[in-house]
Amino acid sequence: MKVALFILILTNLFLGVKSNAQESAKFDFKEKVDSFVKKYSADFSINNDWYSKSFLESTIEYNSNYNGIWKRGLTFKKMVTDSNINQTSELRIRVFFYQFETEKECVAVQDSLYDLLLNPKSAISKTYSVLLCDKEIVGCFLSHGKGDLWIKFKEQLLNTFGISRCPLIQTH
Description:
Blueprint: H1 2-41, E1 45-47, H2 55-63, E2 70-82, E3 87-99, H3 103-117, E4 128-132, E5 136-144, H4 148-161, E6 168-170
Antiparallel strand pairs: 1-2, 2-3, 3-5, 4-5, 4-6
């Protein structure tokens, strides 16, 4: 009886520690995302919308049976003027963040993304930059517009979320 009680206590302690570690990792990633969004909120209008999901986001969620622990998709918008032609247009940058409970779940999704993004016959027409980390996938693409601001934004996103530690896939 004492042995069974001891095993039950150890099991509950282990599960509690694992659950706390997962919550901590989720919180850390979410805080990093929130900090990044806050940094750009002064320069862009931001839509927290899922209705404008990209083809790649739909692939992560539906074709890969996404069962992650946290996700967020945002569209950053700003009016910019091209000084060369004195024309103003809207710059729209789509950014998405996915976090998984285990590396195994994340790798399964990453494998389908590799197949999709690196397939020369793929129907993807946008320029994606996607970081494939141990338990996270962070991506962005320019949905409308062009210019230096897009390049700076993309570099900052990739540096913030781990270009030095995560493989990067870029299309087109």
